[in-house]
Design goal:
Largest sheet: 7 strands, mixed
Radius of gyration: 27 Å
Shape: globular
Distance between the termini: 56 Å
Oligomer: single chain
Number of strands: 22
Strand content: 15-25%
């Protein structure tokens, strides 16, 4: 057996690989993305990027019905999209092992909320596992497949940003190929009509009761008895914080976090003088254990439901000394910005100039809500920009000043149905699709419009314009967003139109299609109007009251030359020419 240093997400992938997973269908979402990317390198596994998480889960369930071990990965808000098949699959069960991996984002590092996915698992009625380090990421994934097939259930494996994106030493084993389980027709099990669903629900509750009864014997739940004066119930990344902050405490570390192994918890509680519950997110353990009659000395009253925990937070809560100068409280802020050369910058410069109401969406371009462009007014969830623009129009009676903006991958994820709704229900609004040829926000994953699949093989590329026309949109315009004058003219015309229209801005992400890398300079002719600074390029700063282009940051995209009315920005000649 070899040992390797792995990202938590790489370890999840390794565990699925060793367990013999055959089919993986996911949608990229930080902090879960690297699991699928790592598995895409395995020749033995079919790996795909699905258009959205609902499709990904449906593919995984279909593969399970076909007798193979399967996996679908997503971030916490992606589980909302996948909830429809997920909840019913909790009734119908599995054939081949089926695992859904969800990564929560405590602290909103890259998300619009701090949703706690444990409630999805409890509400759906499926077992939920939560590892605490990279080795457990691998081991728990393998255990999840065994559990799935043993108990005839989908299994939810929950991670979070720290577990997924921390590295650790992992012992790796060989892959064990799993035989395909022969398909047997059984409509009583797989057809969730009301008559069958009633019986399936009964079976589901029995299975959960059995899992709870078996929980104390599962190796993923462990008791570390030390000083009995303090007992801690915890799981996941909080276990790491607890061990550093309170090394002398007795700890019940839960790997099975739904259903809770309550007999084991009662036994542990009886052995300690004071019991505490330490869990990030909502009081998921606390509420259940309080209802079960377990007395404890502290929980959320000592901590918070917001953000991430830390060693120092736990030390302070227990009155322990915190090492000086550990927490940096006066670090300067660094607001996130669109990259130099970003194809979205031209569009948002014009939207800001036209002072339009912009119903925005999930993607890199959400950063356009920040100064200096301030050209996005809302961001709710994937694909919501179109529905919100339509609702805004129907409420106000006009669409002249309002546009919906979303990316190519987001449009294919959940924007198409919104556009269909606009066409069907008589909207006169304008939808702008930002086609940068990639799924940029999560690290440049492929999508159905990029021409490549998850394994970077050639694949059919969806023509976004044709899709829009097929959905009933007669007026579709495609344009380079760096052609500012033409873009402004198009937007003025389309927003004034009394019919539904779509504008597709087509320019590749600057990080996948490199610019000439010929930097620009601002000459002495500069009038200091600072129009170039209004595009929000990180390569342009103010120096001595005048805009200055940082040569090490400029990628030579030339957008700044198009907003300068005095021809004061020039290309710097390459060396030797």
């Amino acid at each position: 057996m070899d040992k390797m240093i792995m990202l938590g997400n790489e370890a999840f992938a390794r565990g699925a690989y060793e367990a013999g997973v055959k089919v993986v269908s996911s949608y990229p979402g930080t902090p879960s993305t690297e699991v699928t990317e790592a598995l895409a390198k395995a020749d033995e596994v079919h790996v795909e990027w699905a258009p959205n998480e609902k499709v990904g889960v449906e593919v995984a369930i279909g593969a399970s019905v076909g007798g193979a071990r399967s996996l679908s990965c997503m971030k916490h808000v992606g589980l909302n999209v996948a909830a429809d098949p997920f909840y019913t699959a909790a009734y119908t069960g599995v054939s081949g092992g089926c695992v859904i991996l969800v990564a929560d984002d405590n602290g909103c590092h890259s998300s619009q909320n701090e949703q706690d996915s444990r409630y999805h698992g409890r509400s759906a009625g499926v077992p939920v596992l939560e590892p605490a380090n990279a080795q457990e990421c691998k081991d728990f994934m393998k255990f999840a497949y065994e559990m799935s097939e043993k108990y005839d259930t989908v299994v939810l494996v929950r991670s979070n940003t720290r577990v997924s994106h921390s590295r650790g030493i992992v012992t790796v084993d060989e892959r064990v190929e799993q035989p395909i389980i022969p398909y047997v027709k059984d409509f009583q099990k797989r057809v969730a009509m009301p008559a069958m669903a009633i019986k399936l629900h009964v079976a589901q509750e029995k299975r959960l009761a059995q899992i709870e009864a078996d929980g104390p014997a599962m190796p993923i739940n462990t008791v570390e008895m030390n000083d009995p004066s303090i007992g801690i119930i915890t799981s996941g990344i909080c276990y790491q914080y607890v061990k550093d902050a309170l090394p002398e405490a007795s700890v019940l570390k839960l790997g099975l976090i739904n259903p809770l192994p309550k007999a084991m918890i009662h036994d542990f509680a009886a052995k300690v003088d004071k019991l505490y519950i330490i869990e990030e997110g909502d009081p998921f353990f606390e509420e259940q254990l309080r209802a079960d009659g377990i007395q404890f000395a502290g929980g959320k009253d000592m901590f918070t439901i917001q953000g991430e925990y830390s060693v120092n937070m736990i030390k302070k809560a227990f009155g322990r000394e915190v090492a000086p100068n550990v927490e940096i409280t006066d670090a300067p802020g660094r607001p996130p910005l669109l990259c130099a050369g970003c194809p979205h910058r031209g569009l948002f410069h014009i939207l800001s100039k036209l002072k339009l109401n912009v119903m925005g969406d999930i993607g890199c371009y959400t950063l356009a809500a920040l100064p200096p462009t301030e050209a996005m007014d809302s961001c709710l969830c994937m694909g919501a920009s179109i529905g919100m623009a339509h609702g805004f129009e129907k409420a106000t009676g006009s669409s002249d000043n309002t546009v919906a903006v979303l990316g190519d991958s987001t449009f294919l994820h959940s924007g198409m149905t919104g556009l269909l709704n606009m066409a069907y229900n008589g909207s006169t609004g304008t939808v702008i699709i930002l086609d940068n040829r990639i799924t940029g926000m999560t690290g440049h994953q492929q999508n159905p419009a990029s021409g490549k699949n998850a394994k970077l093989e050639d694949a059919p590329a969806v023509d976004l314009g044709e899709v829009c026309r097929a959905l009933g949109v007669k007026n579709v315009v495609e344009i380079d967003p760096f052609e500012l004058e033409d873009l402004e003219k198009v937007l003025r015309e389309e927003t004034a139109r009394d019919e539904l229209s779509v504008v597709i801005t087509k320019r590749a992400c600057a990080l996948i299609e490199k610019q000439p890398m010929v930097p620009h300079i601002i000459t002495d002719d500069c009038r200091k109007c600072k129009q170039c600074m209004k595009i929000g390029c990180p390569a342009i700063e103010e120096k001595d009251g005048k805009p200055y282009i940082l040569p090490e940051s400029c990628v030579g995209c030339g957008l700044c030359t198009k907003v300068c009315k005095f021809d004061s920005i020039k290309v710097v000649a390459k060396e030797g020419k």
